[in-house]
Structure formats: C-alpha cells, structure tokens
Amino acid sequence: MTVIERFLKYVTFDTQSDESTGVTPSTPKQMVFANYLKTELEQLGLEEITLDENGYLFATLPANVDRDIPVVGFIAHMDTSPDASGTDVKPRIVKNYDGQDIPLCPEEDIILSPKQFPELLDHVGEDLIVTDGHTLLGADDKAGVAEIIAAVAYLKEHPEIEHGKIRIGFNPDEEIGLGAKKFDVQAFGCKWAYTMDGSEVGELEFENFNAAAAKVTVKGRNVHPGYAKNKMINSLLVAQEFINLLPADETPATTEGYEGFFHLTSMEGDVERTVLSFIIRDHDREKFEARKQFLTACADQLNEQYGKKVVKVELHDQYYNMREQVEPLMHIIDLAFGAMKEAGVEPKVKAIRGGTDGAQLSFKGLPCPNIFAGGLNFHGRYEFVPIPSIQKAMMVIVKIAELTARRY
C-alpha cells in the first residue's frame, strides 16, 4: 500500500476531538481509528505495539544493525479539528493542477480558488487531494500518520538501508491542546523525536509561541437606570474600557513572524457581570511574561478607578517555546535539515505562530521539533494536500533514520 493509498483510507475515519467531554480520548471514534492502526502495525510486523486506554498507540521498528544508535521517534496525532465536520470525508484527486479555480461543490458554488488561496499556485502541475466542500480533509494530521507508517514499511522493504531502533507514536486530542498530556515519554523511550505535523513542504520548526490563557471577570453594580447616577457600575462598559487599554496593533490580525499578541476570543455578560477570554502569545519569554503582567496592570488601573474587586484576572500558562529545550541539541535539527536535502526538499526553517504537541513533549523531556506533513488550509473545507508533498515527507522520515545510523 502506498503512502497515498494509506492517506485516502485514513481520512475516511471520523476522528474529531471534543474539548467538552473531559475524558481521554475525548471522543470514542478516535479509539476506533487507533484500533485500526494497531492492526495495521501488527500486519507490518512491527514490535512492542501498545495501545493504552487513553488512545496512545506506540510501536517499534527494530534496528537492523548491531551498534549503539540513538533511538529516534516519529509522532503524529489521530484527531481532526472540531472546527469543521470530519464525517463522511470524500477526498478527490485533481490531476496536474492547472492554476485555475477548483470547484469542490459546483452545485453550492464552493470553490477552491487561488484568488483566495494563492499558495495553490506553488503547486501548479502537481496532483492535489481536495475535499468535496462539505468537510475538512484531515491532512492535519492523517498525512503525518500515513507518512510515518509508509516510511517504516519502506524501511522494512529496503533492509539495505541501515537504521537504528525507530519508535512511532500516535496520540489523540492534539487539536484541543491535550495530545501530550498523557503521553508517556518514559515508555516511548527515545532520545529525541519529530512530530510530522507541519504544513507546507520543507517546513522545519523548532520555535513556537509561549502561550497563556486569561479569564477577565468584571463585576458590576446594577441599580434602576432611572436612579443610577454615581451608583451603577456597568460591567459591560468597564470590560470595554479594559479592552481599550490593550494595544490595538497587537492582535492576531495585525501581527506576523515573531510578533506577539493579545487575542480576545470571547465576551459574554450583562450589566452585573461580564467575562472576557483572552489568549496571550509571544515567542520571547521575557515579552510573554511582560504581557501577562500588563493584563494585571490594566485590571489594577480599573480597580483603582471603580473599586478593588471590580476586575479580576486569572492567568493560566498553556505551553512554552520549545526552542529552550531543542537549542542545546541542535544536531537533531541538523539531521532533519540534512534529511530534507537528501530527499530533494529545500528546508524552510520558521517559527510556529502557534503550538504543537512537540512543544509540550519537549518540556516533558522529549525534544521534539516539527516537520512538514504537506497539507494546507487546515481545519476547513478548503483544505488540500499536494501528493508530492506527502511523498517527500515520507522520504524525509526514511532519510532521518538513515542519517542517524550513518552518523553514529
């Protein structure tokens, strides 16, 4: 079975995660997919295959040489985003893309167009896998799953390629930020690993945002509006004042690259009580800490004006920049860089304006940079993946295994 055949099979499994359930995996359908993959790994003849009650599937491709080579891991997540339906995915291959609009569902005028998605033009002449316009595709991250399994199958079929012990891991619930939470790093048993969860071909990422969530609660005082002078405190208006204290040019819509931001994700309330939810992001740890302190300072300013207990800020750190953990081990980046070159891929080292399981795993003791899986426009109906990108990602995995053995 080719890597493309595997991918087309895997996307037929509905594996959406759900942050509201409070269990792991967050949806039982992820376990259905995990059991299917377990059977497939058994048929491939892999060893040390385990699937725990939380949906974490690990397996081993044994070394084919008798010397001390570091154990390397490859990781992908099985769930797809709750942002768009993953039910009844119908992938379609567009042969030799010509640079024009791609009708996904002509009857409903759902069009994948380079006018809205100019990255399509980087793949003219390639075969693309697209949706039918009603679901996401699932390349995030079933492309990664397919690439890893196809790569270990390739290594088994080519025993002339020397490699050390390879560990593979598939986890649930990455899309709701919980993929690394119950990942047993000690049981996985690697010196380092790579998540196959990036986007455009060539991406190699070992920097990500430091991330925190903030809940801002504004307590108002409601009295009859006809007699409210000098008495009423409208929590909605105080919340608006709080928002206006934040820099208008430091939002997701106004920043790029290494620029951090404050992102208001929800606002709900009435005169008596309003709750604002923010996420805070910055690559630089000092700037990240300063952003959190700034939110607290804004609350202090309003409390000085309205009363000590009017505005309350609760902060919760979510993850940190993996660069802190990876930088002392830059040889693992050099290996990925070299593997891409040997696979005919031009590396594009960039910082992630987000986070990955690899960031959290890095802080659990498993340094874990992120490599492209090849898909684009994740989490929606306009998702697509160029077939050559999947094939190249698979070969990057093979080359990392080969280069690791060559260097040790």
Side-by-side strand order of the widest sheet: 1-2-8-3-9-16-10-15
Total DSSP E strands: 17
Compute the number of helices: 10
Please describe the biggest sheet, giving its number of strands, its sense, and whether it closes into a barrel: 8 strands, mixed
- Uncertain residue ranges: none
The backbone outline, from C-alpha atoms, is globular
Q: Report the structural category.
A: alpha+beta
DSSP strand content: 15-25%
Succession of helices and strands? HHEEEEEEEHEHEEEHEEHEHHEHEEH
Mean pLDDT comes to 96
User: Helical residue percent?
Assistant: 25-40%
Calculate Rg over CA atoms: 24 Å
Determine the N-to-C terminus distance. Answer: 31 Å
Which oligomeric form is depicted? single chain
How does this structure look, described?
This protein is of the alpha+beta class. It contains 10 helices and 17 strands. The protein has an 8-stranded mixed sheet with strand order 1-2-8-3-9-16-10-15, sandwiched between helices. A hairpin with a 5-residue loop joins β1 and β2. The radius of gyration is 24 Å and the shape is globular.
Question: Outline of this structure?
Answer:
The protein is α+β, with helices and mostly antiparallel strands and 408 residues long. It has helices spanning 3-10, 28-44, 139-157, 185-188, 235-245, 285-306, 323-326, 331-342, 357-363, 387-407, and strands at residues 47-51, 57-61, 72-77, 92-94, 102-105, 110-112, 128-130, 166-171, 192-198, 203-207, 210-219, 261-269, 273-282, 311-319, 348-351, 370-372, 384-386. α1 (3-10) packs antiparallel against α3 (139-157).
Any chance you could write out the topology, listing elements then pairs?
Elements: H1 3-10, H2 28-44, E1 47-51, E2 57-61, E3 72-77, E4 92-94, E5 102-105, E6 110-112, E7 128-130, H3 139-157, E8 166-171, H4 185-188, E9 192-198, E10 203-207, E11 210-219, H5 235-245, E12 261-269, E13 273-282, H6 285-306, E14 311-319, H7 323-326, H8 331-342, E15 348-351, H9 357-363, E16 370-372, E17 384-386, H10 387-407
Helix pairs in contact: 1-3, 3-10, 8-10
